Amino acid sequence: MTIATIGAFCIGEFPEAVAVMLFYQIGEVLQDYAVDKSKESIKSLLNIKPDYANVKRNNEIIKVNPEEVSVGENIIVKPGERIPLDGIVIEGNSMLDTSALTGESVPRTAKIEDKVLSGCINQNGLLVIKVTKEFKESTVNKMLELVQNASEKKAKTEKFITKFAKIYTPVVVLVAVILAVVPTLIWGNFTQWLYRALSFLVVSCPCALVISIPLGFFGGIGKCAKSGVLIKGGNYLEALSKTNTLVFDKTGTLTEGVFEVQSVNPINISKEELLKLVAHAESYSNHPISNSIKKAYAKEINNSIISNIQELAGFGIEATIEGKNILVGNEKLMLQKNIKFVKSTEVGTVLYVAINKEYAGTILISDKIKDNTKQALKSLKEHYITKTVMLTGDKKEIAENIARELEIDEVYSELLPDEKVKKIEELLKQKESNKSLAFVGDGINDSPALAVSDIGIAMGKLGQDAAIEAADVVIMTDELSKIETAIKIAKKTKLIVKENIIFSIAVKIAILILTAFGISNMWQAVFADVGVSLLAVINVALGTFLKATKCRIGDVS
Questions:
Q1: CA distance 55 to 193
Q2: Which residues pair with 44 in a beta bridge?
């Protein structure tokens, strides 16, 4: 660019010299704006990092930095606090919000001798935990490192113009020098050959490529934004155009992430009566399962008929409702109370109910598949995707049932965040070298997987901030169908960029040859530079900014 500009000044073409640098700077500004403004550091993920730990030392509880706690020490975790270090519960029982680690919205029970992981939130009980790992080895710290390392390992798409310039620029400069010197030594007339050499440099100026390539991707990014899809740079749009494998998280991505009562199966009692008794038994709990039952009951809870409520950690609830003994819980509760029951074959969370020690039926609660998920996946596989995979921390039978319903090719269940990353790394090795693998997720626990994939796609509307920051593509409307829209725009953008590259290089080569033989002059050189640049920009505008996308350079010519 510098040599071409100086050459233009040397032959007195001052407007051309200014235009060359001006167009170059415009192209650079567009590229920088598209990339730098969209990609932010993963600051939100730091929210899961605990600020302190309550350590019991010399019969006193003191607040210290988690990094100062040693293995074997006891820490106190109050309701509402985040568990700072991995350990084993030695006193108390509670419900833990594990969504930051597993992505699953149902809290897990923590009782004596249970292992607990840092990053979980203690919901309702006081816990005394014996530390089993130092902070640097804790689950939450490993998650932070996973995201950082995954971001470093991701290979960035090398820009075409950079590769091209490594060969193009030295060759053109060398040819220009030869064109000015060698013919002069043979035939004389240095001024004439210098003029041809400088014209040669002007026509070789890669403005059309410098402008149209970033502008083409910028146009595609803009069009995606209008469709509710945020692309964080031209390199990600290019990689998206080559995507043929989609890997999905389950909860919040393929499903609603909200638990609902799917069926009520009574025995010797009406559905309404069974639901009423269970809703009253669960009335004092804020557990998502309890909330889903109360929502399904949809009537006011009469507290006067409730008494003797006991929460049986790891089993369920026992209560007296209208003078009847009510048991609501899992299979273990029925076995513990010696109640004969029929094991349910339904997939989901099954609550077994007993009234006065007699089995009274079940209530099935499960996550609901999003309304547009099945059709979106079907359309993607028909047009762009050859393989779909689901990764989840949920139980095997639930995951496999959802995979069958959505016709997903492969499913891997009961995975922690680091296991998801390992599985994605395995899938990356299996894919074709010229194709891309995209991971779609929505939670903090998905951040490492989003970062290690060729393309990380976050569901923005319901997604966690950390997942959105870690991702390369964000679906702002939370619709899976937008992935197909993004891939379609990406492929179209890539086609436009290719058209501009081929057209620009073809014209330049033709004018370069003519200039070398003295057939063309500075005006043709200016056209080969500025004119081709304008045509390339017009092609981008017609292809990405306007609706008349079928018009191409051939039509403009």
A1: 83
A2: none
Q: How far apart are CA 205 and CA 194, in angstroms?
A: 17
**141-144 own/partner pairs: CB under 8 Å, 24+ apart:** 141/49, 142/418, 143/45, 143/48, 143/101, 143/119, 143/417, 143/418, 143/444, 143/445, 143/447, 143/448, 144/45, 144/46, 144/49
Q: Which of 97, 249, 367, 442 is catalytic?
A: 249
Nearest C-alpha neighbor of 205 from the set 509, 502, 1: 1
Alpha carbon distance 203, 183 (integer Å): 20
Task: Say how many Å lie between the first and final Cα of the chain, rounded.
Answer: 27
The answer to whether residues 321 and 277 touch, using CB atoms and an 8 Å cutoff, is yes
Pair 27, 217: CB distance under 8 Å: no
Tokens of 206: 């890669």
What residue ranges do the domains of the chain occupy? 46-137, 222-255+370-486, 257-368
Q: How far is CA 417 from the centre of its chain?
A: 14
The structural architecture, per CATH, of the domain 46-137 is Distorted Sandwich (2.70)
Half-sphere exposure of 493 (CA within 13 A, CB side): 32
Do domains 46-137 and 257-368 share one topology? The answer is no
What six digits make up the tokens of 203?
Answer: 């026509």
Helix extents (H) in 298-395? 331-336, 373-383
DSSP one-letter string for 178-228: HHHHHHHHHH--HHHHHHHHHHHHHHH--HHHHHHHHHHHHHHHHHHHHTT
Tell me how long the chain is.
Answer: 557
The rounded distance, in Å, linking the Cα atoms of 250 and 201 is 56
For residue 258, which phi and psi values (nearest 5 degrees)? -125, 125
Q: What is the pLDDT of residues 215-269, one digit of tens each?
A: 777 777 777 877 778 777 777 888 899 999 999 988 778 887 777 888 899 999 9
On the question of pLDDT at 345 being above 90, the answer is no
Question: Domain spanning 222-255+370-486: which superfamily?
Answer: HAD superfamily/HAD-like (3.40.50.1000)
Gap between the Cα atoms of 275 and 265, Å rounded: 10
Q: What is the pLDDT of residue 270?
A: 93
Active site residue 249: yes
Quick one: 468 exposed, middle or buried, by C-beta within 10 A (0-12, 13-18, 19+)?
A: buried
Instruction: Give me the pLDDT at residue 9, please.
Output: 78
Nearest to 56 by CA among 127, 139, 116, 140: 127
- Per-residue b/e over 484-508, b at no fewer than 16 CB within 10 Å? bbbbbbbbbbbebbebbbebbbebb
Predicted pLDDT at 549: 38
Helix (H) or strand (E) holding 422: helix 417-430
pTM of the entire predicted model: 0.62
Residue with the two structure tokens 């100062």: 68
Handedness of CA 99, 103, 104, 108 (dihedral sign): negative
For residue 119, CA distances in Å to 144, 152, 463 come to 11, 24, 18
Check: CATH 3.40.1110.10 for 257-368?
yes
